[in-house]
Amino acid sequence: MGGLGLLVRAETRRRWLALVLIGLLVGGVGAAVTASVAGARRSETAYDRLAERTGQPDATLVSFVDPGFLEEVISLPEVETVWRMRGVVGRGLDLPTVNFLSVVAGPPRPDGLFEPLVEKGRLPADDAVGEVAVSQGLADSADVSVGDRVRLGLLTQEEFESFDEGFGLPDGPTVDLEVVGTFTVGGNDSHEQVGILGSPAFAEVATDAGGGDGAMFLLEDEPGAVERFEAGVLAASEDFDLPPDAVELGAYDLRLAAEDRVRSQASALVVSRGLLLVGVAGLLIGVLGVAQTVQRHQSRSLGAQSVLGALGLDRRQRVLASLAPFALVTAPVAAVITVAGAIALSPLLPIGSARSLEPSPGVELNLAVLAVGAVATVALSLLVVALVAGVMVRRPALPPRGGVSLAARGARVGLPLPVTIGGSLALDRGRSGTAVPVRAALAGGVLAVAAVVGSAAFATSLDRLIDTPARYGSPSDLLVADAQDELFDQLQDDPDVEAVLETRGFDLVVEGTRRDASSAEVRKGSIGFNYISGRAPVGPAEIAVGPALASRLDVGIGDEVTLDESGDAATVVGVVLARGDVGNSYSDSVIVDDEVRAASAAGGSYREALIRYRDGVDVDAVGEALGADWEVERIEPPVRIVDLAQIRNLPLVLAGAAAVLGIGLLAHALVVTVRRRGRDLALVRALGARPREAVASVLAMMAIIIVIGVAAGIPLGILAGNLAWRAVANSLYVAEDLAVPVLLVLACLPIALLVGLLTAVLPGRRASRLEVAAELREE
Questions:
Q1: What is the DSSP letter of 327?
Q2: Spatial CA neighbour of 564 closest among 526, 590, 534, 536
Q3: Straight-line distance from the first to the last Cα atom of the chain, in angstroms, rounded to the nearest whole number
Q4: What confidence score (pLDDT) does residue 602 get?
Q5: Cα–Cα distance between 464 and 738 in angstroms, integer?
Q6: Is residue 346 predicted with pLDDT exceeding 70?
Q7: Can you tell me the mean pLDDT for 655-677?
Q8: Residue 760: in which H helix or E strand, if any?
Q9: pLDDT per residue as tens digits for the range 570-623
Q10: What does the pLDDT look like over 267-284, one tens digit per residue?
Q11: Lowest-pLDDT range, 125-129, 159-163, 210-214, 511-515?
Q12: Which 3 state secondary structure label does DSSP give 56?
């Protein structure tokens, strides 16, 4: 074994504990980053994996016309597998407010089609009339759990078809249902497909109850099959007339998995990008922290450059001598901790909407991701060590600068001595043995402030979006479904009601595809949907579209689109966010003049009242009172925005980590400065400076680092927050203006100075107690 090998062995034996601790630090960073990447991948694939596991249908159709229509749809050439079903509606008889629930049931399902994933309990037995399972989303929103019982009064077919006209208690059969389980199924994240699943026995009992017959379909796996099927359904519906009292319903309701996938994938993408952003930021923070730790370790090791140079080692050998102990001890520890930590963190992921879609929650053992994470962590850590060692090798061993010249330069410009010394300590890293990590402290300060400000701006913008329903197309506090003239008369006379908007929703064929459409009429006050650009349509030749729909159709203001099978053209005059009863289509809606609704051949309409109350009114109380007679809904954010709210804490966690790193780097810089630049302070003391001026110099150093960090960090944070929010807002099709947390920005400097003051207490105390003679004697 040569001299280099002996040196490496001695260094490894002497500093093995420090090397292990550095390995734990590197492994912790690697585990967090690897877990973030694995969580992002898991989020992006959750929908597809759930859809495959639960046999998500390619299409779900409910018919409200003659049974011959459904038979004609089933016979379309694109259909491969079918499950016939029936959905019936009933009113919860034991509930304090008017609330209607839908139960879907049918014969035993074919293999591979609609196989719900049981979350709790079990699915209803085939022969149990009163057993039902509830979708997990509905169970959470309605606070329903396994073992609960629901007494449901089913509507008659006549009541179902005249839903918009209103009626008293249902005249259909009463059923007592027991919740025996909760389930998840692909495409059902907002329980719009199946909220309550009944048994085959229930389907037989429900044949005379009010509802619609339908089917779930698996289609041919070939290009264009979904589009041909959709066109075939539309064409088939033209041969059947609606029942006279069913104008509200339209001929059918068709839900396509492709559209569900786009919406769910958009939500999952927000989660995935958030996790990747946290991973990237964590990586940058970790690299900075590891580099600082390695630099300190190297400066105190046997392999310090003065020793290595004296032994005659060239630059390459010196770098190898510094790198070898890390490769032998730190790298294996880091690899093990990366893998173990990522596995331990995996049950926490994914988060937000992706978590509700994850078919296999819990520990994930993705060997490919873990292997890449471990190798990347080791390689990156060794690269950081090599770079730090390379910089130290190339740095010339010049003598340290003296403190007298610092005082002289300060005196020339008339600055107080502590400010002059503190400025030099903060901006001049020193040379050779007096080098201090002030650059790392400055970088850490800028990063910490930027992370805090950017994260706070993002969180503030998200809070504003959630708390301002108009920003996602809901200009009201409450929505009343199936509103009647007497309700509007009641609201007109209510002094607490500030504004009322009457909407009539219906299906409209736009560019050959059925869309959710509405007309709107102000009944009281001033109220309207959120027009991002343009204006509301006037007359049958104008239309406003949601931004997501405008993007899919590639149209803008001034372009024309075709309506209904007639091919009549309408000019796009506005881009609008409009959220009605189907709240998750707020960016896909269509707003037209009421003349278009009245003349549309795509079906009838449902009538709603959007109510905004005056400031100070207890909306929950008035909503509960109104709900005794009407079907009232409290305005809640759409699913995609709720999903985003669930990752609100990610930026704050990132900000906290950056702040801790910034404080640590500042404290380290102050401690090392007092220790390594003690000669400068001792020279100043020898020239007559008092102990308190030495303390003031340390405080001035701290203040200068913090002021630079705040001055550079605030605009950088606002820029980063703006970029992040614009990306998210564009994916949600909401306003992209950033809400800057002004109070936090103004408080950044005083808060940072207070934290810096606490951090500088011990280094300042040590500076005041320096033994001048001892410091100068050591030189």
A1: I
A2: 590
A3: 37
A4: 47
A5: 10
A6: yes
A7: 77
A8: none
A9: 999 999 998 755 556 788 889 999 888 877 744 456 788 999 999 999 998 998
A10: 677 778 778 877 887 787
A11: 159-163
A12: coil
The 10 Å CB-count burial string (b at 16+, else e) for 403-429 is: beebbeebeeeebebbbbbbbbbbebb
- Residue 244 tokens read as 């006279």
Q: E strand or H helix at 374, and its extent?
A: helix 367-394
Q: Residue 481 in 3-state DSSP?
A: strand
**Rounded-to-integer distance, Cα 48 and Cα 38, Å:** 16
Give the whole-angstrom CA distance, residue 720 versus residue 726: 10
Burial class of 13 by CB neighbour count within 10 A (0 to 12, 13 to 18, 19+): exposed
| C-alpha R_g of the chain | 34
Instruction: Enter the tokens of residue 413.
Output: 């410009």
Q: What is the pTM of this model?
A: 0.71
Cβ–Cβ < 8 Å for 422, 703: yes
Spell out the residues 6+ positions from residue 524 whose beta carbon is closer than 8 angstroms to its own. Answer: 491, 492, 497, 498, 499, 500
SS3 221: coil
Structural contact between residues 318 and 306, judged by C-beta atoms closer than 8 angstroms: no
List pLDDT tens digits, range 631-653.
888 887 877 777 677 677 777 77
Read out DSSP for 298-315?
Answer: HHTSTT-HHHHHHTT--H
Instruction: Let me know: does 444 contact 665? Beta carbons within 8 Å.
Output: yes
- Look at the block and give the residue holding tokens 């007298």: 404
**Average pLDDT over the chain, rounded to whole?**
82
What is the residue type of 477?
Answer: D
Per the structure block, which two tokens stand in for 273?
Answer: 């990008």
